[in-house]
Amino acid sequence: MIEEGCSQRRIAKELNLSKTTVNEIVKRYRREVAETGSFIP
Fold first, then answer.
1. CA angle at residue 35 from 33 to 40, to 5 degrees?
2. Alpha carbons 41 and 32: distance in angstroms, whole number
3. DSSP states of 1-41 as a string?
4. What is the pLDDT of residues 1-41, one digit of tens each?
5. Integer Cα distance of 28 and 39 in angstroms
6. For a tag on the chain, would you pick the N or C end, based on fewer CB atoms within 10 A?
7. How far apart are CA 41 and CA 33, in angstroms?
8. What local confidence, expressed as pLDDT, does residue 3 receive?
9. Angle between helices 8-15 and 19-36 (to 10 degrees)
10. In this predicted structure, what is the pLDDT of residue 9?
11. pTM for the complete prediction?
């Protein structure tokens, strides 16, 4: 969803998660992509 341009606030609302949780997931995703070039949950 991030790559599609959705805001973290919108993602949090749609998935019924806190903005903090979404932020942590996005940070983990970006770190993994930067280190390995891909992301496997």
1. 45
2. 10
3. -TTTT--HHHHHHHHT--HHHHHHHHHHHHHHHHHHSS---
4. 888 999 999 999 999 999 999 999 999 989 988 988 877 76
5. 9
6. C
7. 11
8. 83
9. 120
10. 95
11. 0.77
With CA atoms as reference, report the closest residue to 40 among 11, 28, 14: 28
For tokens 């940070």, the residue is 27
Q: Closest Cα to residue 25, out of 11, 13, 37, 5?
A: 11
Joined tokens for residue 28: 């983990």
Q: Is 20 exposed, middle or buried (0-12, 13-18, 19+ CB in 10 A)?
A: exposed
- Our CA dihedral for 6, 21, 14, 34, rounded to 10 degrees, sits at 30
